[in-house]
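Before a computer can learn anything about folding, someone has to put a protein's shape into writing. The outcome of that step, for a single protein, is printed below:
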Amino acid sequence: MYESYYGFHEKPFTTLPDPEFLYFSSQHELAFTYLEYGLSSQAGFIVLTGEIGSGKTTLLHYLIDKLDPRTAAIAFIFTTNLSSYDFLIAVAREWGIEHEQSDKAALYDAINTFLVDQYAKRKQAILIIDEAQNLPFETLEEVRMLSNLNDTKRPLLHLILSGQPNLIHRLNNPKLEQLRQRISVHYHINPLDREETEHYIKHRLTKASAQNNEIFTSDAFDRIYEYSQGIPRLINLICDLSLVYGYAEQIRSVDGRIVDMVVQDRKRMGLHFGAMMQVPDVSGENCLDNDTVQTAVWSKKYRELCENVYELARLVKKLLEIRDDVSRHQQELQQIYQKIRKLEARCLAICTNKASRLSSSENRISEGEKYDMQAHGMTGTMP
C-alpha cells in the first residue's frame, strides 16, 4: 500500500517473527549469547523469558537459521496447550520419528532411539518449546522425563523453554522442583529504551531498503516509545499504522501528530495497544499466591547468579574462539611439519645416492691406479 510511496522493497513493520529483520539490542545480544553458551557448554536446560512481543520467537528463529543442520537436529514446538501424550506426538512428528501412536511406551522408546542415533552421529538434538508458559503441569513433567535421556557425561537432548514472564512462576511451583533444578541458563529480555527504540525503527527501515530512513521525526520517536514502552511488536504496529496514515495524507515525514492520531483512533474503536506486563514479582507473598516458594532474597541472588553466568559465558565464548584458532594453527603446523619431513627424506635420499655414486667412482679410480702401477713395474714395496 505505502511501500512504493516511501521507497520500500517490502513492508518494514510486520508482527511476523522474521529473523532477517532482527535488531540486536543489548538485551537481545545478551539473550543470544546465553543461548549459544547453553548449547556449547552442554547445559541441557535453557530458559528464555520476556514480555509479550519482546522478540523471543524472532530470536529463536534466528538461532535456528544459524545452526548447521549437519550438526544439529532441531524440533520446534509452538502449539503448547497440549496434553502430555499429544506433546510427545508433536515432538516425534517434528523429528520425523515413526512410532506406534497407541502405545506411549513405544513412543518413548522411539524418541530415545532417535536421540541415541543422533548422539552417535555427533549431532545435537535440540528441542525448542515456544510459549512454554501454556504447558500444563503434566506436560512439563513429560519435558522433565525427556531430559532424563542422557549418557554419563553429556545430555542426549538440549531443551530451550521460551515464554512470557509467568513461565517463571510455573517453574517455581513446588511440583516442578526436579525440573527447576536442571535449568542451567536463564535470561529475561527487557523492553527497549528510548534510544534503542529509535535505532530499532531505523534498522527496520534500512532492512526494507528505504531510500530515506529519516521518515520518522524525533518527536515521532518520542511518542512511539511512550505508547509502546519499548515492546518491539507494539513498535511495529504503531509504525505500520503511522505509515498508512502518512500515505493517506501524502506526507513524506511522519511526526508526533500522526502517531497521536493512530493511537487515539484505535482507542476510539475500543482497541488499545496493550499494557506492558510487569517482570514477575517474586516476593514471598506473591510466590505463595502463585503456588511458588521463592522469596525476594532468593530472587536477588538469582539475578546476581545470572549476571555471573553471563560473564562466564563471555569468557567461555572467547576461550572457544581461541581454541578454534589454536586448532586451526596446529593443523597448519602439522601440514608444514609433514612437508618438512618429506623434504628431509628426499634430501637424505639424494645425499645417500650421491655418496654411493662417489664411493663407487673412487673405487674405480683406485683400481685404475693399481693397474697402471702394475703395468709399469711399480708394485714393489716402498722403502
Summary: The first strand starts at residue 45 and ends at 50. The chain has a mean pLDDT of 81. The chain is about 55% helix and 10% strand.
